[in-house]
Every structure is written in C-alpha cells, then in structure tokens.
Design goal:
single chain, about 350 residues, alpha/beta, Rossmann fold, 8-stranded mixed β-sheet, 17 helices, globular
C-alpha cells in the first residue's frame, strides 16, 4: 500500500462535474482514496461506471476502474469528506446551494473552476463561502491540461486553502507519481491567476490565428503577466504567487497549447470567425469569454491599467475585430516595461 493511500484511505472524495477537468481530477483522487464523480449526464455516468471512460470529453483515455459515478447529487455527497467543485463557474452557486443539507459543516471545499461569477465578480471560493459557510475553502490550480495528465505526462499544481493545515492534510489526495501538488497559503493569488489567464489565452490565440508570429505571442504573454500581477495584487494576492505555477505557469500553458479552449477561441477569432459561431461549435465552456467582463470591472474599480484585457473585452463583447484591437495596442503609448503603473524619471536636461 502506498503512503498516500495509507494516509488518505479514511477520507472519501466527491468531485462535482463530469467535464474533462472534473473527470481528470476524480481520476487522480481515485489513485489514493475512494472517489465518486457526480455528473448530470447519464450517458457520461454509464461510460465511467461500465467502460471506465468519458467518451464525450476524453475519448481514447482510460480512467481508474475504481472511480464511481452517479447523477444523484444527494447520494454522491452524503458521506463525502471532501468536495471538489469542477462545474462551470456559472453553476457553482446553484450547486453549492443544493448541498447545504447534504454536506457536513466542516467538509473542506476545493474549487478547480477558473473564473469569476458574472454580475458579482466574486471568486469561486467567495461564492462557496457564502453558500456553505463555516467550511475550509480552497483552490487547486496550475498549468494542468487534462489530456496530458491522463496520458501520464508530468505536471504540477498548487493547493491553497484558507486553513493551511487543511491543505497539508489534503495534499496527498491529489498527488500521484506524475502529478505533483504543492501546498500554498495564498488563496486569492492562486485563484485570481487561474481566473485571469484565460483572458490572455484568447489574446494569444488571436495572435496565432492572424499568423503574427511567436515574437508577438511572447509579447502578449509577458505583458499579459504584468497586467495579471497588477490586478492580482490589487485584489489581495501576492506577486510571487502570480509568478509561480498558479499565475505564470498556468498562463504559459494556456497561451501556447492547442488543447486550451480559450486559446482555440482566440485563434478562430483571429482567423475571422464570429464569436457566436465559435462558441456554438464548442462542447465545453471557454471561461475567458465571461471572465473578461469581470476583469474589466475589477480593473476599473481598482484603477489598474489593463490594455490587453480591455481589447479582448472589446473583441468579445463589443464586436471589435481582432485586427483592429491588436493594431490599437501597437499604437498605444510606450511606457516603462516594468509594469502598467511603472514610472521612470529622466535626468533633467534630457
């Protein structure tokens, strides 16, 4: 018996959400402890239980044979010691509210959804705290592409909890020989990094769709990181967090991988397709399209300069063409490279 199984065998995990990432997280947890996956779709549940696959989202990949799935929310959560929220951000509040009578008062809640709640601009852990108060809440995040992880390729993530000792206790649940999970104390920074990076993945994909080259994409990534750090720290995160796995790491993976849904949205926009057509052809949510509304609002509220994010908003929600948006960035004022708010004094007489 592995050390992680010996440590965690007494904790039952329920993962809420049967998409690609929820299924992958459930597969990881099932290495270490009894794990149940809740999904709305009966076909998905049957495939997991009988064929150990999720053909809708992860065709060609095998799942742990001991992973169980159900469409019964009450049954899935009644005896859970840990709840992992992997539903889209738009469904987190509704799902959490439905669990008020079924989850224990001290059950840890871990969000893996990356984005903000529309209208309120709240992070997912803030939503969970409102609907299920009195429980430790946290986030599992990082540069984690589901298909690479299921293929056994190495990856790393961070688990940040409001109560750090809980993160240390839960760390072995998610860790496998090829998926390394580090604990973290900065819930805000980790969560904001994962939410905002999707916006820049759209921008990077648009650059790729317009065939503007790797130099331009690298510029989007690095200047996007500067904007991400600026807003993330204004919201209470720590700069070093946003330069780590939850910020820079996730940003890079999402901005360079064709597996990223947000990157694919941007690429197709850059190729000239309309946003409505792009989204109509997708089977899962591209959170960056929604998150950019919150990013715009939060940037205004905290008086943070985020020109790339604002152009992504204009493309997604004001009908601006990616070509016009990127040309607008090139025509913008050239400031000091250190960050959006940086200022450098020049010697007198120069």
């Amino acid at each position: 018996m592995s050390r992680s199984v010996a440590v965690m065998q007494d904790l039952a995990v329920t993962v809420l959400g049967g998409g690609s990432w929820g299924t992958t997280v459930a597969h990881l947890c099932a290495h270490n402890t009894p794990t149940t996956l809740w999904a709305r779709d009966q076909t998905t549940v049957d495939a997991i239980n009988h064929r150990h696959t999720n053909d809708r989202y992860l065709a060609g990949f095998s799942l742990r044979a001991d992973l169980r799935a159900t469409t019964d929310l009450a049954a899935a959560t009644a005896n859970a010691d840990v709840l992992v929220f992997a539903v889209p951000t738009s469904a987190v509040r509704q799902t959490a509210a439905a669990l008020a009578e079924h989850s224990g008062p001290w059950t840890p809640l871990v969000s893996v959804a990356k984005g903000f709640e529309e209208l309120t601009n709240l992070r997912m852990t803030e939503v969970l705290e409102q609907e299920l108060p009195g429980r430790p809440v946290g986030v599992l995040t990082g540069p984690n592409l589901a298909k690479e992880i299921l293929a056994g390729l190495p990856a790393a993530a961070v688990l940040a909890m409001t109560e750090f000792h809980v993160a240390a206790r839960l760390q072995p649940i998610f860790t496998t020989p090829t998926f390394r999970v580090f604990t973290h104390h900065d819930v805000i920074g980790c969560e904001v990094g994962g939410a905002i990076k999707n916006v820049y993945a759209i921008a990077a994909g648009s650059v790729d769709g317009r065939r503007l080259g790797d130099n331009a994409r690298a510029a989007i990534i690095t200047r996007g990181l500067a904007e991400l750090i600026e807003l993330g720290t204004a919201l209470g995160g720590e700069p070093l967090t946003l330069a780590g796995l939850a910020g820079l790491g996730d940003l890079m993976a999402t901005c360079i991988s064709p597996q990223s849904r947000n990157f694919q949205v941007g690429r197709q926009l850059g190729e000239g397709r309309s946003l409505s057509d792009v989204l109509a052809g997708m089977d899962q949510v591209a959170e960056g399209v929604k998150a950019v509304r919150s990013v715009r609002d939060l940037a205004r509220q905290h008086r943070v300069s985020m020109p790339i994010a604002l152009q992504v908003y204009a493309v997604c929600h004001e009908g601006r063409s990616p070509e016009w948006a990127q040309d607008s960035l090139l025509r913008g004022r050239i400031g000091h490279e250190a960050g959006p708010r940086a200022h450098v004094s020049t010697p007198s007489g120069t």
